[in-house]
Amino acid sequence: MPKNTSQKNNKGSKTTKNSNTKNTVKNSSSKKSQTKKVETKKTETKKVETKEVPVQKVETKVVREKEMIKKGKDNDTSLLDRLSSNVPFVASLCVIIVLLAALIYTISSKKVPKTSNGDEIVATVKGKTVTANDLYSSLKEKAGTDTLMNLIDTYIANKEVTITKENEDYVQSVVDYYKDYADYYSVDLETFLTNYVGLSGIKNEDEFYDYVLEDYKKTLAITKYISEEASEDDLKKYYEENYSDKLTVRHILIEVDSEAEDKDKADKDAYDKAVKLIKELNNTDSSNLSSKFEQLAKDNSDDTGTYANGGLFENFSKKDVYEEFYNASYELKDGEYTKEPVKTEYGYHIILKVSSTPVEEYESVKESVKTGYAENLLSSDDTLFIRKWDELRKKYKISIEDDFIKKAYENTISEATKEE
Questions:
Q1: Per-residue pLDDT for 321 more than 50?
Q2: Strand 312-316 with 347-357, pairing
Q3: Domain range list for the chain
Q4: Do 48 and 316 contact (CB within 8 A), yes or no?
Q5: DSSP for 49-69, written as a single string
Q6: E strands within 200-332?
Q7: Within 13 A of 246's CA, how many CA atoms are on the CB side?
């Protein structure tokens, strides 16, 4: 989802500027424009736009969702960006499928004339006869390998994956997300998918739901395949690195002016302001500390996602934030605040710990650990998805008889293996 970052100016208004964040406070749910919540890690800001980029000849990056869209969570990597990054493929694939469907219908619905050597005639024009073989050869060279792999992978995914109610709800939330965007641009869903995403041939919500579901099944299938290969040591290591107590804090961010000519002075000014606020807290009676901290956050914090709510940042784990921020929060007792400013890439934080929830035991979350482990591997290696699908197809004894398609497929796998 797109995330916009706003910073308060000296008069209390907000001026938008480019900035990045990875995770946000859970009550962020706006789909039209969202403000940054806690500036702790960076991720790229994404926009709703069509991207003309090269695509691989065989594979496409289908939905590789890292997190479920739930109330109170941002979707860090939206389907929109992945769909729009494959515009040439999805557009050509839709055209190919429509043409093939028309060809099959024509052949099956009536007696098709044939040439003297037995080839079925699709069309004629003065001086030229177009046969089914001519059409197949032309379509094959344009997108035949992609289309074939899509058919095969859909079959395999349906064998490998059992869709749950949670999966269905997730797919529906993706569809709803795009419907909301279509409403935002005051167009119907078909127009939005065609003009803004580059996905043509989908006429209504039901068709789009089926498309997303089939795409999502492929991601679930390859995630399952990778997770089943993981060793117990690999899974436990991932658990130790990514699972931790969930913390709730209030915090005040004093941002360092990144555009200042004198960087050292800007850093010192931010630090000094944070120290001054800590001194105010030191002079506050313990019975009034929480309310005082909330007011200081509202008046001074540059984190526009949390300042209005007194700097509240809920239920985050160490994988969600910068290490310095998590460690400082973790070391505090409930009701304690940091006596020195905590530095992160975004500036200086003052943190008041509210509460913590102990980390889940490994065995109780093992299935989610396996999924997270696989998704992490996929997100860190652009060719892994291609290579693992090749392995999974071989598990199902794939055999490509057409020499042209076979060569194109082998070339794609070879290129992916080189980059391994």
A1: yes
A2: unpaired
A3: 80-229+381-418, 244-357
A4: no
A5: --------SS-------SS--
A6: 246-255, 312-316
A7: 9
Counting other chains too, the contacts that 130-138 makes at CB distance below 8 Å and 24 or more residues apart are 132/103, 132/107, 135/99, 135/103
Angle at 394 between CA 388 and CA 399, to 5 degrees: 135
143 vs 164, higher pLDDT? 164
Q: Give residue for tokens 């007792």.
A: 333
The C-alpha atoms of residue 212 and residue 205 are separated, in whole angstroms, by 10
**The token pair that represents 322 in the structure block:** 């910068």
Which of 207, 58, 78, 223 shows the shortest CA–CA distance to 157?
223
| Selected residue with higher pLDDT from 126 and 263 | 263
Cα–Cα dist 325/335, whole Å:
17
Q: Supply the pLDDT for residue 208.
A: 95
For the CA atoms of 17, 20, 21, 24, what is the dihedral angle to 10 degrees? Answer: 30
For residue 121, what is the enclosing H or E element? strand 121-125
Does position 330 have pLDDT exceeding 60, yes or no?
yes
CATH class of the structural domain 244-357: alpha beta
Q: Rounded mean pLDDT of 59-67? A: 34
Q: Does residue 63 contact residue 82 with C-beta atoms inside 8 Å?
A: yes
Tell me the per-residue pLDDT of 174-188, one tens digit each, with 9 for 90 and over.
Answer: 999 999 999 999 999
Residue 218 contacts residue 392 (beta carbons within 8 Å): no
- More confident position, 274 or 50: 274
